[in-house]
Amino acid sequence: MAPVVSGFSKLSKKDKIKWLAEHHFNNDQNAIDTLVTYWNSDNGLQQLHDEFTENTISNYYLPFSVAPNFLINDKRYTLPMTIEESSVVAAASKAAKFWQTRGGFKANVISTTKVGQVHFMYHGNTEKLNRFFNIIKPKLLAAVSHITQNMEKRGGGIQEIELRDKTTTIDNYYQLHCTFETVDAMGANFINSCLEEFAKTLVSEATSYTGFLETERNIEIVMSILSNYVPNCLVNASVSCAIDDLPSTQTLSSRQYAEKFVRAVRIAEIEPYRATTHNKGIMNGIDAVVLATGNDFRAIEAGVHAYASRDGKYTSLTHAEIKNDIFTFSIEVPLALGTVGGLTSLHPLVKLALQLLERPNAKRLMEITAVAGLAQNFAAINSLITTGIQQGHMKMHLMNILNQFKATEEEKQQLIKYFETNTVTHSEVVSQIEKIRNS
Question: What is the pLDDT of residue 389?
């Protein structure tokens, strides 16, 4: 068991690693070398990475990939994707190539409203609180004018402040429910700064409000924080084509393919066990673009899955239908994204990712990201209803297994050729490596 350490954050990076090696890695030089290997040789860039967070000892790299041939609203894009799962980029690229000759993807932003709340306790008459709120509402807005002025110049700001009575769920519990427009910024810092000022003003105004009894003036702020549930920050994306333009196989006509595809999506709409994996596949595409563009994929995940449960049951984010011999596949998803602020102006690869997308504004990035999720889902369902998911996935995973066993280039070439006509499994790869090495 490692001893308690004080002042760890003040140690140099080398001293942090020395402490870890001594107390966690049995002074294993290989562990030390591995951590140092992933340092960036450009000291300025390494310092930038070190200062992103606390107690940085190394860098954790993920592949930065691209998926070309995305036709979105009649404009062609190459999507940046940061993800380690082997088949995701290949699947997205395949879907993009398929739909580029069938009209491409259509996408539009429905709304961009974001939410923050001041949670507080008030022990008193609700009607009095409502009167008090209506009186001080202009003061709440005035209190944040120094924060909102630049956002307002860009077309954003505070949309509304509501007082919400939540006492039916928790005694004496109320909210200031606030909506915001943050334009091209994700807006977390802006929203949280406004909320904290609202909270201060709420408390200070209550202490001198003559309409309250003495016992009613003591408003307790529990917390002031934005919400990552953004059901009114929505984007829609879709593809459609004539049924005859869909794939056909030896066992499925194009119509049968369409009908089977619609059934597969319908199952995800009504079955939470399937919907969870179905939506995870969608998030493979969405998260990869979100991470590549320096946005907060944890916030996106939380908001998306809450949205999938908004009617009381977890369901599919995508929908498919056949109408008048036209197949349509679509997604509606909440995405609170930004193209200014945060890592967008700091991380070199994030800058390149946004440059690759021709420096989109937040709405355009919402459209592109939703399309990535739809494309990923199309590719997954296409595999599931035809060859099965493992055939393509395991062939992409083959290289990971070969690298795990430190296969030489000659061994890799032999095994890639072998598995062109044989099923990839971990045990079969191991068996074939042993055969090559024993011979």
Answer: 58
Measure the N-to-C terminal CA separation of the chain; round to a whole number of Å: 46
- What is the spatial distance between Cα 76 and Cα 373, in angstroms, rounded to a whole number? 17
pTM exceeding 0.85: yes
Cα–Cα distance between 206 and 382 in angstroms, integer?
60
Phi, psi (5° rounding) for residue 414? -60, -45
pLDDT band at 64; cut points 50, 70, 90 = very high
Interatomic CA distance for residues 69 and 376, integer angstroms: 14
User: Taking the CA of residue 218 as centre, how many other CA atoms within 13 Å lie in the half-sphere pointing to its CB?
Assistant: 3
CA torsion 371-373-377-379 (nearest 10°) is 60
Q: Of 283, 261, 305, 246, nearest to 372 (Cα)?
A: 283
Of 337, 371, 427, nearest to 75 by C-alpha is 371
Q: Amino acid identity, residue 238?
A: S
Mean pLDDT of 144-173: 97
Question: Which pLDDT score is estimated for 394?
Answer: 60
Confidence of residue 65 (pLDDT cuts 50, 70, 90): very high
Collapsing DSSP to helix, strand or coil, 363 comes out as helix
Annotate 239-252 with b (16+ C-beta within 10 A) or e (fewer).
Answer: bbbebeebeeeeeb
Whole-number Å distance between alpha carbons of 334 and 203: 33
Active site residues: 85, 280, 296, 393
